[in-house]
């Protein structure tokens, strides 16, 4: 059997090549469910098709859950690949350089492999359960920033307006107590940046499994912590995501709770 990591990296890099070559070119843009904030391009679809073909060829018995195509197999298998072929589509369509490919492998409900690839910077974030996290082959670790007032945080806003309003309240609280806030527009990159120590904490509402499957493992394997907003165990299909360097986790929980 082929190595899971090798195949996942090959799939991510092939998809990244498709995305990078499409930058500045003509492509079709559609809107999911008529929502102008939720776009999909034919580049998303071509990227996903390439990933699915590579995964199916290597592991024909595995299930695949991908953002644009949903479940690509109805087979019963303990193995499920969770794929975002282009995380940060809005950024991509505007030429804003913050987007990536995200591929996670779930075995019997547990994420065991995560790969996030930024095709413009050619940065490959990856993790295997129990083996640590890497960036382009070098070990990475979360930051050692001890307090919120010294922390750089990052967040994102969901497509539905109700969740956006709620997160604006969170944003206001954090901007008053942190060293700074950022919004990149790519949850998979945000989680990878927590893992690499580039930011110290991340929170967001209403993410999908393909947004967080790979990044959640990269964070924990880099020594970080990921939970819901109350500190309960993280679920990739949950409504809340909070990832930190551990040291500021409880403080962020309290701010999210309005304390």
Descriptive notes:
The strands form 3 sheets. The chain has an 8-stranded mixed β-sheet with strand order 4-3-5-6-7-8-9-10, sandwiched between helices. A hairpin with a 4-residue loop joins strand 8 and strand 9. The protein has 7 helices and 15 strands. The longest helix has 19 residues. With 259 residues, the protein is an alpha+beta fold. The chain is globular and about 50 Å long. The chain folds into 2 domains: 137 residues, 2-Layer Sandwich (Fructose-1,6-Bisphosphatase, Chain A, domain 1); 109 residues, 3-Layer(aba) Sandwich (D-Maltodextrin-Binding Protein, domain 2).
Q: Which tags fit this structure?
A:
259 residues; alpha+beta; Fructose-1,6-Bisphosphatase, Chain A, domain 1; D-Maltodextrin-Binding Protein, domain 2
Instruction: Please tell me how large the radius of gyration is.
Output: 17 Å
CATH class category label of the largest domain: Alpha Beta
User: What percent of residues adopt helix (DSSP H or I)?
Assistant: 25-40%
Strand coverage percent? 25-35%
The name of the CATH architecture of the largest domain is: 2-Layer Sandwich
User: Could you give the order of the helices and strands?
Assistant: HEEHEEEHEEEEEEHEHEHEEH
Shape: globular
Any low-confidence stretches, pLDDT <50, length ≥5? none
Output the number of helix runs.
7
- Terminal residue distance: 51 Å
CATH homologous superfamily annotation of the largest domain: Fructose-1,6-Bisphosphatase, subunit A, domain 1
List the helices and strands and how they pair.
Elements: H1 4-22, E1 29-31, E2 39-41, H2 42-58, E3 63-66, E4 70-71, E5 79-87, H3 89-94, E6 100-107, E7 110-118, E8 123-128, E9 133-135, E10 138-140, E11 152-155, H4 161-177, E12 180-182, H5 187-195, E13 201-205, H6 209-221, E14 225-227, E15 240-244, H7 249-256
Parallel strand pairs: 3-5, 11-12, 11-13
Antiparallel strand pairs: 1-2, 3-4, 5-6, 6-7, 7-8, 8-9, 9-10, 13-15, 14-15
Helix pairs in contact: 1-2, 5-6
């Amino acid at each position: 059997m082929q190595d899971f990591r090798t195949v996942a990296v090959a799939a991510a890099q092939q998809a990244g090549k498709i995305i990078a070559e499409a930058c500045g070119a003509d492509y079709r843009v559609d809107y999911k469910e008529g929502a102008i904030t939720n776009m999909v391009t034919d580049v998303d679809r071509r990227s996903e098709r390439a990933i699915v073909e590579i995964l199916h060829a290597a592991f024909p018995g595995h299930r695949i859950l991908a953002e644009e195509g949903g479940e690509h197999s109805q087979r019963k298998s303990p193995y499920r690949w969770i794929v975002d072929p282009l995380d940060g589509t809005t950024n991509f369509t505007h030429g804003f350089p913050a987007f990536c490919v995200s591929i996670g492998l779930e075995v019997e409900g547990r994420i065991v492999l995560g790969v996030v690839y930024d095709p413009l910077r050619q940065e490959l974030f990856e993790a295997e359960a129990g083996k640590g996290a890497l960036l382009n082959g070098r070990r990475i670790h979360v930051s050692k920033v001890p307090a919120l007032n010294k922390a750089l945080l990052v967040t994102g806003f969901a497509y539905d307006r109700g969740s956006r309003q709620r997160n604006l309240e969170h944003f206001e609280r954090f901007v008053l107590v942190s060293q700074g806030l950022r919004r990149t527009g790519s949850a998979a990159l945000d989680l990878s940046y927590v893992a690499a120590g580039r930011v110290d904490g991340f929170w967001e509402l209403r993410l999908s499994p393909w947004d967080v499957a790979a990044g959640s493992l990269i964070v924990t394997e880099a020594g970080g912590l990921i939970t819901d907003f109350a500190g309960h165990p993280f679920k990739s299909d949950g409504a809340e995501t909070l990832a930190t360097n551990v040291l500021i986790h409880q403080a962020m929980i309290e701010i999210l709770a309005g304390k």
